[in-house]
């Protein structure tokens, strides 16, 4: 099998990097090298930014309707190429093909939302706000935007960034994850096939040096980041020091509350899918289940469900979860499982050392379940990012809310109940940015904003929805008066009054 060499994308063309540093992109189920990706040089990053800066001069003046038509074409191309994109995701990330296709669908939602740009970017008008004075606002693009994405959603996360940024008239520099870049690059090719002009969307690759250069660059006006809390915090501070807008969507520790009145089978199946799907490599995975009152009696069913989940390569259509993205990720997850044992948690299902027939080198960790987990334990404090579920039991809804609110993160939480009163009380009192009611992964549809909170987010405005339009535009307010041709001034007005 030939090994792909991942290009940059600059000024509307794939460009081979001249870097001396390249990394292997590996199929996590087999350890087969499927591609090589460069860590771009500083000069190459400068070239990408310069291309975007030059393209902004003309792109910002392209009519809204033409930008809309490009987005319409892009959404059609993504839909037509879903299977190809999903296969690339599975090959390099490891998630199952159905899960990968679902990811493409969630990214597609954002592009579909961007197709409404002709109404999304409208300003406001107050006619005759003062004597023959009109006041109105213009929502104008910022200039060059940039995005840095994590490995776990190589299609959805770029879609959280560049479609709305470009649709609002900005140009863009994207740095995808070096661990699984091929699907992102195919998405960028489709964007250019849809009609995005040269220089409007550019791609560079690399590690911390490239990310820092993007954060520091004075020609980049706004930066969107999705990834770990450590990296996101560092980049947020660098970007702020460089005077740019920044949104940082970071780590999580999400909880799923199960009330005793919930639909038992629905709640259990949903929480297991949320905890173990994509091998737990989702920032919105519910990695902690809080069983309230008599719902603790459902533990045996939860354990049994955990044991019946099927692990296999992502190409195995009946697999529930695939491998972790890398041997390093596997080692870290297994190390945290060991820490949970040592710190006193009760390990009821152990996924360490999991073997899948025919795939001896795969980064597999089986579904793992702990009970008797306390907030002081490492497995509760850290985001494991693997197929590990921590079970906590409490007596009342009040205790569940207090327990969740004490956690510093605020990305997402869910509750399963058949009581409208309980659900309303939970959504009102829980201090978490995104809430699911009988929905295990509460990522909202794309025309609502992604609203993680507290330690899971830095910056006031999140991706998608109205907040993304506000993030990628600046508001210019115009106060205008037009005099009649023969109007004569009645004298100097030295007051602040508009008259």
UniProtKB/TrEMBL annotation:
<keyword id="KW-0520">NAD</keyword>
<dbReference type="InterPro" id="IPR016163">
    <property type="entry name" value="Ald_DH_C"/>
</dbReference>
<dbReference type="Pfam" id="PF00171">
    <property type="entry name" value="Aldedh"/>
</dbReference>
<dbReference type="GO" id="GO:0006574">
    <property type="term" value="P:L-valine catabolic process"/>
</dbReference>
<dbReference type="InterPro" id="IPR016162">
    <property type="entry name" value="Ald_DH_N"/>
</dbReference>
<feature type="domain" description="Aldehyde dehydrogenase">
    <location>
        <begin position="16"/>
        <end position="478"/>
    </location>
</feature>
<dbReference type="InterPro" id="IPR010061">
    <property type="entry name" value="MeMal-semiAld_DH"/>
</dbReference>
<dbReference type="InterPro" id="IPR016160">
    <property type="entry name" value="Ald_DH_CS_CYS"/>
</dbReference>
<dbReference type="GO" id="GO:0006210">
    <property type="term" value="P:thymine catabolic process"/>
</dbReference>
<dbReference type="InterPro" id="IPR016161">
    <property type="entry name" value="Ald_DH/histidinol_DH"/>
</dbReference>
<dbReference type="GO" id="GO:0004491">
    <property type="term" value="F:methylmalonate-semialdehyde dehydrogenase (acylating, NAD) activity"/>
</dbReference>
<comment type="similarity">
    <text>Belongs to the aldehyde dehydrogenase family.</text>
</comment>
<dbReference type="InterPro" id="IPR015590">
    <property type="entry name" value="Aldehyde_DH_dom"/>
</dbReference>
<protein>
    <recommendedName>
        <fullName>methylmalonate-semialdehyde dehydrogenase (CoA acylating)</fullName>
        <ecNumber>1.2.1.27</ecNumber>
    </recommendedName>
</protein>
<keyword id="KW-0560">Oxidoreductase</keyword>
């Amino acid at each position: 099998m030939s090994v792909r060499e991942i290009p940059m994308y600059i000024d509307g063309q794939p460009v081979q990097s001249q870097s001396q540093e390249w990394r292997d992109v590996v199929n996590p189920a087999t350890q087969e090298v499927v591609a090589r990706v460069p860590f771009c040089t500083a000069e190459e990053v400068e070239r990408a930014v310069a291309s975007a800066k030059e393209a902004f001069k003309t792109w910002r003046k392209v009519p809204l309707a033409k930008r809309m038509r490009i987005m319409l074409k892009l959404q059609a191309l993504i839909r037509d190429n879903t299977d190809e994109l999903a296969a690339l995701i599975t090959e390099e990330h490891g998630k199952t093909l159905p899960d990968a296709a679902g990811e493409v669908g969630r990214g597609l939602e954002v592009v579909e939302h961007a197709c409404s740009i002709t109404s999304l970017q409208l300003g406001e008008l107050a006619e005759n706000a003062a004597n023959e004075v009109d006041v109105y606002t213009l929502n104008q693009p910022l200039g060059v935007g940039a995005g840095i994405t994590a490995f776990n959603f190589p299609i959805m996360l770029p879609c959280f960034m560049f479609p709305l940024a470009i649709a609002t008239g900005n140009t863009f520099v994207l740095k995808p994850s070096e661990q699984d870049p091929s699907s992102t690059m195919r998405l960028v090719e489709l964007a250019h096939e849809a009609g995005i002009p040269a220089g409007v969307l550019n791609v560079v690759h690399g590690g911390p040096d490239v990310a820092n250069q993007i954060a520091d660059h004075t020609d980049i006006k706004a930066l969107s980041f999705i990834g770990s809390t450590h990296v996101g915090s560092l980049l947020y501070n660098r970007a702020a020091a460089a005077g740019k807008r920044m949104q940082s969507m970071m780590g999580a520790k999400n909880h799923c509350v199960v009330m005793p009145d919930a639909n038992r089978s629905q709640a259990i199946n949903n929480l297991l899918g949320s905890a173990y799907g994509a091998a737990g490599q989702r920032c919105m995975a519910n990695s902690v289940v809080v069983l309230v009152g008599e719902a603790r009696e459902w533990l045996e069913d939860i354990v049994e469900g955990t044991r019946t989940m099927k692990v296999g390569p992502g190409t195995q259509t009946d697999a529930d979860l695939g491998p972790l993205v890398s041997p390093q990720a596997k080692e870290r997850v297994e190390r945290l499982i060991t820490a949970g044992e040592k710190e006193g948690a009760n390990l009821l299902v152990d996924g360490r050392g999991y073997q899948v027939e025919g795939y001896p080198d795969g980064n597999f960790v089986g579904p793992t379940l702990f009970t008797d987990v306390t907030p002081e334990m490492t497995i509760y404090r850290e985001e494991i990012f693997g197929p590990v579920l921590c079970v906590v039991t409490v007596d009342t809804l009040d205790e569940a809310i207090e327990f969740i609110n004490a956690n510093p993160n605020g990305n997402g939480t869910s509750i399963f109940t058949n009581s409208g009163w309980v659900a309303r009380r939970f959504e009102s009192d829980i201090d978490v940015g995104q809430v699911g009611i009988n929905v295990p992964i509460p990522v909202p549809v794309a025309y609502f904003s992604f609203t993680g909170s507290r330690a899971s987010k830095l910056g006031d405005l999140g991706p998608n929805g109205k907040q993304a339009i506000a993030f990628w535009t600046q508001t210019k307010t115009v106060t205008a008066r037009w005099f009649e041709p023969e109007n004569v001034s009645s004298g100097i007005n030295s007051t602040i009054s508009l008259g």
